Amino acid sequence: MPESMHSIDHPTIPGPVPPGHHPPHFTEIVCIDVKKVFDSCSNVECESFCFELDEDCAEIYPASPEPVPPFIVVSCTAGTATVGPITILPVPGEPLLRRVIASICGPVTVTFTDATGMTFTINIPQDCICFQKDVLLFMPNPAVMFGHIEVVSFTCLGAKFIKENEDFEICVTIGLRAIVKSEGWVQLLVGSFGYCPVPPTCRELGTLCEGFIAAPFPTIFPPQIFEVLSPTSP
After folding, report:
1. Pair 149, 131: CB distance under 8 Å
2. Which of 5, 100, 152, 214 has the greatest CB tally within 10 Å of its CB?
3. Can you tell me the distance from the alpha carbon of 100 to that of 229, in angstroms, rounded to the nearest whole number?
């Protein structure tokens, strides 16, 4: 066997395997408790939510003086979305499927300026912006299985003001990416290389003084003429 094929060429540590190298053979087969994903689906949604100004879902700060139109949106930022309680319901005629139902809600902050140049903020509470999930997943034993939703991204894609009769509304467009899973705790037999090695020493950011001391000492005196001009210079 060529030397490059021996397992000694690749250490048994986490990370990618270099091209042409092979990891060593398993040293044992172990039984582990893991959370197994039995089924999953990805979900992408984009929706606009509109609220009247100075209502519970769109209170303006500061409260006075009252902003003077026209308004210009400066920024729209979405906070961290959370997943509400997940409900699992049976599907008539489909004993291996279950409905996974939940809501994904998150807060949004909009900053804008009015005709006077003053800056205002609209804080839209979390319970005002919600996406409803109701999907079908393979779940053969719901007694020991459960639903899980992972929010990949919850982003404000834009905001604008619209005028309805004499009142203004703020509309925010929210993009959501989420993964819905059916999971269950199981015992699996897996190949193992044994226990993980002791990890390397952690790197620390250090202090301002450490960076100052490690930096090279600056030149004190100005350069001389022979350090600037080459011998061939006129």
Report:
1. no
2. 100
3. 77
Instruction: Write the DSSP symbol of residue 116.
Output: T
Q: Which residue has the tokens 């999930």?
A: 133
By the 8 A CB rule, do 76 and 218 touch? no
**Highest mean pLDDT range out of 108-112, 138-142, 199-203?**
108-112
CB atoms within 10 A of CB 154: 22
In terms of Cα–Cα distance, which of 98, 117, 106, 70 is closest to 183? 98
Its sign, for the CA torsion 25, 31, 35, 38, is positive
Write the DSSP symbol of residue 25.
Answer: P
Prediction pTM value:
0.76
Gap between the Cα atoms of 55 and 3, Å rounded: 73
CA-to-CA distance for 127 and 104, rounded, in angstroms? 9
- Is 48:171 a contact under the CB 8 Å cutoff? yes
* Amino acid occupying residue 93: G
